[in-house]
Amino acid sequence: MESLDLMTKIVSLCKRRGFIFQSSEIYGGLKSCYDYGPLGVELKRNIAAEWWRSMVYKREDVVGIDASIMMHPKVWQTSGHLSGFSDPLVDCLNCKERFRADKAPKVAAGTSVTFKKGGKANGDALTGAVPAHGYVCPVCGSPQLSDERQFNLMFRTNMGPVDPLSEFVRDAHGKDMTREEFRTKLDEAVRSTAVYLRPETAQAMFVQFLNVQQSQSMKIPFGIAQTGKSFRNEIVTEHFIFRSCEFEQMEMEFFIEPGTQNEWLKYWCDERMNWYANFANKKEDFMLRRHDSDELAHYSDDCYDIEYRYPWGWGELEGVASRTDYDLSRHAEASGVKLSYFDQQKVDPATGKPGWRYTPYVIEPAAGLTRTVLCFLLDAYSEEKGVDHEGKEKTRVVLKLHPRLAPVKAAVLPLVKKDGQPEKARAIVAELRRHGLNVSYDEQQSIGKRYAKHDEIGTPFCITIDPETITSDTVTIRDRDSATQVRVPTAKAIEIVRERLESLA
Ligand SMILES: [Zn+2]
């Protein structure tokens, strides 16, 4: 399968079958915003639930929180997001494209390049030399670009009943100000009531470190996990839900003793790689890549990316970072609250006396939930050539989602809408629902079309009710991946579905 072709097929399947729609589609959509449809919400929730199960429920040393999306502006000032969290933005003076300087095609300074006027295919050919910055416009190849300016990625809004802009206009009206004074006063006015949508979920775990540790009597090492929405005003959004302004994260901060970060970093890299491998069909499409020293964030002493082989190449899925004591130390300093931990059992390495108070180090496995949705859709998509019951060649599209991630666990299908078959089917549906499973009753269209639909949305089992069901209380149960059917007693079919899902837990 041509790889970019695969992306087109996924986007089309997502819309056709109700996984993901463009936001506000009837109004032409809103850039990079997407809505999860009836099947997409199930897939996304199932992924988040599996993450939570592995990070929280299966462990004694990790607990969860659900923090507010808006936090005190000082959090972002202290974390460095207010000043440092920005992208170098550049405008192309030729074609007007706006892009990130650090993502632009690199061309050695001084090189003479040709490009089309206005970026139009039929435009005159122009020539220019690449300036010292060493890159060109990603769209038209022009070296004629604006200066770089820093653009903050956080979404800003205002809290409270006062509109800072109205206040500013009232105060500034009729006053003689230079452009610079105007700019500074406007900025002050807006900032005075500004709050920000969080650009990551992680900071809440740092600022609630003490509350969680004390209320739950947690002993180091321990972690705090959270899933939730984050927002970044990305200049370049791309690849469907891969990079969007609104996205969901699954992050965990694991607090450890200073000096143990190497072993815990390795531990969490392994844990997280195993988690993906457990749900993936093609394990070779996941890899661990260590950051080069010049790639490391200023707070990090070591970091790995878990990368996935997307149709456009390897790209980030999750980062596992050793964040040292940077965040807790910064927040302690800025807030005046001691964000430290006292270990009675340990000897203080500085004094040699029993009892050690220290600022914990942190290992952070930070995964993108939205990206994981895309990655598992790509991983699951397969096409199988075969012949239908009339001997015609056809392609079977199967979404080989891991059964625990599949939106619908089983479809119950009466062959016909009469002879007691619907009643029997509904009784089986009710029994499966009683066990907490999301199952579907489906009586529309031919049985072949219903199988094809459930293959395409990744339903692991189809249970079919036919005349024999009524006489012998048996059904056929069809396996999605092999497309084979076996006849079993009705009670056995229910057991097969339940046991298969539980055995994979
Ligand atoms: Zn351009």
Protein model, in words:
With 505 residues, this protein is α+β, with helices and mostly antiparallel strands. It has three domains: 3-72 and 198-377, Bira Bifunctional Protein, Domain 2 (BirA Bifunctional Protein, domain 2, 2-Layer Sandwich); 87-152, no CATH class; 393-503, Rossmann fold (3-Layer(aba) Sandwich), CATH 3.40.50.800. The chain contains 15 helices and 25 strands. The protein has helices spanning 3-17, 38-57, 73-79, 81-84, 164-172, 179-192, 202-207, 209-215, 261-279, 326-335, 369-380, 421-434, 447-456, 467-472, 490-503, and strands spanning 20-22, 34-36, 62-64, 86-91, 98-100, 112-116, 125-129, 149-152, 156-158, 194-196, 222-231, 246-256, 286-290, 302-310, 313-324, 341-347, 354-358, 361-368, 381-387, 393-399, 410-414, 439-441, 461-465, 474-479, 485-489. Helix 2 (38-57) crosses helix 11, helix 3 crosses helix 10 and helix 5 (164-172) packs antiparallel against helix 6 (179-192). The longest helix is centred in the first third of the chain and has 20 residues, at 38-57. The radius of gyration is 28 Å and the shape is globular. Zinc ion binds at residues 92, 94-95, 97, 119, 137, 139-140, 142.
Q: Counting H and I runs of at least 4 residues, what is the number of helices? A: 15
The first-level CATH class name of the largest domain: Alpha Beta
Determine the CATH topology of the largest domain. BirA Bifunctional Protein, domain 2
Strand order of the largest sheet: 3-11-12-18-15-14-13
Mean pLDDT across every amino acid position = 94
- The outline comes out as globular
In CATH terms, what is the architecture of the largest domain? 2-Layer Sandwich
Bound molecules: zinc ion
Number of domains: 3
- The secondary structure category is alpha+beta
